[in-house]
Amino acid sequence: MFFGVALSSLVSCVDTGGQTGSVIEDAGTVDTAQDPTGVCYADGGLRTSGNPFVTRFVADPAAHVFNGRVYVYDTDDQSNDGTYWGSTVWHAFSSANLVDWTDEGTVLTLQDFPYASGKWAAWAPDVVSKDGKYYFFAPIDRWQIGVAVGDSPTGPFRDAIGGPLIQQNRDVNAGDEPIDPAVLIDDDGQAYLYFGTRVPKAVKLTADLLHMDGPIIDMSVSGNNYAEAPWMGKHNGTYYFSYSTGWPGQIAYATSASPLGPFVYQGIVLDFVGISTNHASVVEDFKGKSYLFYHNGKLPGGGDYRRSINVDELHYDGNGGITKVVQTTQGVACVP
Ligand code: FUB
User: Fold this and answer.
1) What is the pLDDT, as a whole number, of residue 227?
2) Rounded to whole angstroms, how far apart are CA atoms 23 and 272?
3) In a 3-state reduction of DSSP, which class is residue 192?
4) Per-residue confidence (pLDDT) for residue 36, from 0 to 100
5) At 75, is the secondary structure helix, strand, or coil?
6) Which ligand 1 atom sits closest to the C-alpha of 59?
7) Catalytic residues, which ones?
8) Ligand 1: does its nearest atom lie under 6 Å from the Cβ of 85?
9) pTM metric for this prediction
10) Which among 58, 85, 270 is the best mutation to test ligand 1's pocket, defined by most ligand atoms within 8 Å of the CB?
């Protein structure tokens, strides 16, 4: 049965210029039986996100599903001077269907942390939700990691501790460069923070997510090819640790029965992306599919310091392995 509805006046279901996916301007009719929301089908068929899927230079995507919406938290490359990763603010985008993206703007700045030097290095962040609050884990100055908390996925976030959660010169085994925080809250409620350059670090967090609850450990990953950009996921009871292998790097992954390892190297999730850094995150289940978010330099004017974010489907094989993600220009299909 076909239910048609004219869409000639519908421009977009989002409020931003941030999207690059197809925009319905003169869509004729849409099959509302296939797509009850009326946003996914246009004249040519199912719309796709396009890659990169935003027109702003942002990098280091940390993607999560909150309240039925995908939120992607980023380093804001748009505001650096194009010669280094000089960002001082973090940016976010969100979407309910992976095609229409809302530019949530700057969601946090270095100035929100009183102990930050404020000069630069608002780099790869992560955000998790617990008990109705949203915790923004922010690398600051390249030598400390702070936490800000908010009541919504886009804040406003405020410094939650009054000092750093991790600090290079204060904390035993914080490593040479405590950057790239990634947090997993396990099924039993225990939270783990992963971070670090060249040596993957992990530490348990207290129930309020604001303090370390034990020593910082060096994670054991066979193959020893860890460089940066840690991400921890869980699939069918197995922990999947992914990370970049270098500069340039691929995104590799290793698995373990424990969130603290030891991890066994399994293979490559994402090949080189054509620039000096690689950084990815996994959405394990959004409306029935898994997705990999990553950055490259493919927006016009893009490059090492002007990166932009992409999304492609991620597939597990029948044996618990991850099939290497195919980097596409069409991106992913709209999910109503
Ligand atoms: O954005 C600055 C740095 O580049 C990040 O911290 C790394 O993961 C790399 O992507």
Assistant:
1) 98
2) 30
3) strand
4) 64
5) strand
6) 1
7) 60, 228
8) yes
9) 0.91
10) 85
Q: How confident is the model at residue 224 (pLDDT cuts 50, 70, 90)?
A: confident
The Cα 39–Cα 9 span in angstroms is: 13
**pLDDT tens for each residue of 244-280:** 999 999 999 999 999 999 999 999 999 999 999 999 9
277 Cβ inside 6 Å of ligand 1: yes
What is the whole-number distance in angstroms between the Cα of residue 179 and the centre of ligand 1?
8
CA distance 105 to 89: 10
Band (4; pLDDT cuts 50, 70, 90): very low
Q: 275 in ligand 1 pocket by Cβ < 6 Å?
A: no
Is 75 close to ligand 1, i.e. is its CB under 6 Å away?
Answer: yes
Kindly state the tokens that stand for 84. Answer: 């280094």
Question: What distance in angstroms lies between residue 277's CA and the mean position of ligand 1's atoms?
Answer: 7
Domains and CATH numbers, the chain: 1-48 (no CATH), 54-323 (2.115.10.20)
Q: How far is the CA of 200 from the centre of ligand 1 (A)?
A: 14
CB atoms within 10 A of CB 83: 9
**In the structure encoding, which two tokens stand for residue 210, read together?**
């604001």
User: What does the alpha-carbon distance between residue 145 and residue 161 come to, in Å, rounded to a whole number?
Assistant: 11
Residue 148, Cβ neighbours under 10 Å: how many? 24
Distance CA 156, CA 108 (A): 8
Whole-number Å distance between alpha carbons of 191 and 168: 21
Query: How many residues in total does the chain contain?
Result: 336
59 pocket-lining for ligand 1 (C-beta < 6 Å): yes
Name the closest-CA residue to atom 9, ligand 1.
277
Closest C-alpha among 109, 115, 176, 117 to residue 136:
109
* Cα 124 to ligand 1 centroid, rounded to whole Å: 6
State residue 278's pLDDT score: 98
